[in-house]
Write a structure and sequence with these properties.
The structure is a homodimer of 155-residue chains. The first copy, chain A, has 155 residues and is mainly alpha-helical. In chain A, 63% of the residues lie in helices and 8% in strands. In chain A, a hairpin with a 7-residue loop joins β2 and β3. At the A-B interface, α1, α5 and α6 of A face α1, α5 and α6 of B. Chain A binds a DNA duplex (30 and 30 nucleotides) through α4.
Chain lengths: 155, 155
DNA sequence: CAGATATATTTGCGCTTACAATCATTGAGA
DNA sequence: TCTCAATGATTGTAAGCGCAAATATATCTG
């Protein structure tokens, strides 16, 4: 630790970050509304579409999403009703449920991806210089690595 | 717009960001638990403590927090019950309610601030070089400025 | 093999939040 | 002044999510 307080520069960086991330999320979410998808729905479809056979066990999917198991159950309800995802029971282990993206879901994702990419560009990437984009990645990889190790002293 | 797709570098930056911010928020939130405060509660106390007379109209406070009016009403309920915030009716305009931080609230904030600052340092600032801290501020000011202007073409 | 333990998922419940409706008060125009 | 739109706050309602409990199945242990 460097000091018990934040320098002016540190404070400015922290405040800029804290005040902006919610607005950014809201903007990205708003741009998905025309596709009838929430950001959370979109993430489900992306992860499933990138998975083998387009499917994943519920528990693996909830880990990927950083969502609780119950949260995932309810999130899937909507996607199943929209016919974007199907639930199929595991054959070898009958406890497990697989969430699998349907062809409807793949089509919906294909329609949404260009707008979403454009949205990420518009609100984030294109606001930055190439050097800043690189810095952004470096910064959050460093922060993410730190959070992973979670080196709390006491616990 | 530069391109309809993301370059590898852009994708890496975006994914690092997207995967990390929720973890960071969770870590900061967890470090406030011993103080019996959520991050949202903490923000309320900070904003009120920095305001004239330690109080703010509900609507101004909800704007500062980026919270809906109804959300603020319910959030204050908890802080009022904890005696950290008091509601007082406006004198000139009897529609307005002021949320004002109590001395209990100021004490609670004083107790929490050092831990929170340490938390921000541990999880964010100290993971970065000074140059990265500066870059972080520049990046999110640029992004925030862009979101403010919201230059959507169609609407 | 039986019983205990672990794992995968869903359901019950409560918390937080936003949107829409409601109520109270203010300010502006006829 | 009286009316009506605008403003500030709260309440009703619903959606999203996590925790704990419940359920079903699998695995380990004696």
């Amino acid at each position: 630790m460097t000091s018990g307080r934040l320098t002016a520069t540190e404070m400015r960086a922290w405040r800029a970050y804290a005040e902006t991330i919610d607005h950014l999320r809201a903007a990205l979410e708003a741009d998905l509304v025309p596709h009838g998808l929430s950001l959370g729905d979109y993430e489900v479809l992306v992860i499933l579409s990138e998975s083998v056979d387009g499917r994943l066990r519920m528990c693996d999917l909830s880990n990927e999403l950083g969502l609780s198991p119950s949260g995932l159950t309810r999130r899937l309800d909507g996607l199943v009703k929209a016919d974007y995802v199907a639930r199929t029971q595991g054959t070898s282990d009958r406890r497990v449920m697989y969430a699998s993206i349907t062809s409807e879901g793949r089509h919906a994702l294909q329609r949404a991806v260009p707008d979403h990419v454009r949205s990420v560009r518009t609100h984030l990437i294109d606001r930055l210089t190439p050097a800043q984009v690189t810095a952004l990645g470096d910064i959050f990889r460093a922060v993410g690595d730190g959070l992973g190790r979670q080196s709390r002293s006491g616990t």
